[in-house]
Amino acid sequence: MKFFPLIWRNLMREKLRTTLTLLCIFIAFLLYGVLCIIKGAMTVDVTLAGSERLMTRHKVSFIQMLPISYRDRIAAMEGVNAVTHMTWFGGIYKDPKNMIGTFPVDPDQHFKVYPEYIVAPEVMAAWKQKRNGAIVGTDTMERFAKSDGWKIGSVIPFTSPIWGAPKGANQWEFEIVGVYTTKEQKGDRSSFLFRYDYFDEAREKAKGEIGWMGVRVTDPKQAPAIAAKIDQAFANSQFETKTETEAAAMQGWAAQIGDVGKILMSVLGAVFFTILIVAGNTMSVAVRKRIREIGTLKALGFTHQRVLGLVLAESTAIALLGGLAGLAIAKLITLGGSPMPEMLPNFVFSGRDLLIGAGCAILLGILAGALPAMSAMRLQVAVALRRG
Fold first, then answer.
1. Per-residue pLDDT tens for 41-62?
2. Each residue of 311-332: b (16+ CB within 10 Å) or e?
C-alpha cells in the first residue's frame, strides 16, 4: 500500500487516456453484469426444478390441451405422490404491457406438488371460500400496490386474448385474498393464481381441459420409469402425452430461445478481447513515456521485480476501478426489481457471478499489464536514462 500514491499519480498523469480506458472497462463489465442477470432470470426455473417432479404435457405441443380426467388416472399410479395441473391464461391487466403470469390451479393439490411456495393457512382458507379468489406473488403485489393500490380485497380486472371474456361478462375479475412467497430467493414470486373450478365454469370453450400437469413422485430414482408409464398409458389416444423431469422440460423451454450460456460467452469473449487490447495499449504507451523515470527508480535501488509489480499494480488498478464500477451499477439495476416481471421475474445479480466478475477484472489487469511490465523489468538503467 505504500506505493499506492505513486501508482495513483501515474494513473492521473494522462487523465484523458485513463478516463477513456476506465470507461471502456466500465461498459464491458456493466454488459457482463446485465447479461448474467438476464441469463439467471431465464434459467432459474431449470436450476430450481426438483428431480422428484415430472411435467406431463401434450405430445404434439406445449399449447395443446389435455383432458382433466388424466389427472385422476395419473394420481392412481404406483409411485405417484401428488398431481396438480396448470393452464396458461395469458392475463392482461389494463394495458397489453401488463401481461402477468396468470394460472388457474387446484388449491388443494398445487402446493403438494410445489411445496417451495409458501401460503399462510388463513390465506388458503380464505381462498377456498372465495370462488373468484386469487393469491398473488409478493413481487407482483408490491409492484402494483405502489402503482395501482393493490391490496387484500382488491378486485382485479383481466382480459385474456386466449380465452376471451367469461360467460355473461366483458372481462375477468378476481378478488385478491392473500399473497404467497417462496423458500428460495430465486423462486418465482410474480404469478397470479386463481381457482380452476371458477375458470372452467366461466370460460366459453375447452371446458374440462387443462394445459399441463405437475407430477410429484415418491422416489426420484423411479422418475424415468414413472414418466414412461404415464406416456404408455395414453399412447395411441386422442391426447397422447410427453412426460419428462421438470428440469428437462424447463431446459427445453429455455433452449427454444437459444443457448443463453453460449451467447453470453460469445459476446463477452469478443468484448473482453477488445478491452484487453485497449488496456494493454494504454499500459504500453504509459511505460514508453516513463522510460527515464523507470531507469531512475532502478538507479535508486528498485529491483526488477518491484518495477514489474508497480506496472502490474497500475494495470490492475485501472481494471479493478472500471470493472467494480460496472459490476456495482449492474447490481444497483436489480435493486429496483425486474423491468419485465412477467418475462424475467427473478431479476437478481448473484454473488457467484459478482465474484467471477471481480476475478475477471483482476485477470484483465494482469494480462493487459504483463507485456509492458516485462518490458519495464528488463530495461537496463543505462539504456533507460540514455533513451529517456
1. 665 554 444 567 899 999 988 7
2. bbbbbbbbbbbbbbbbbbebbe
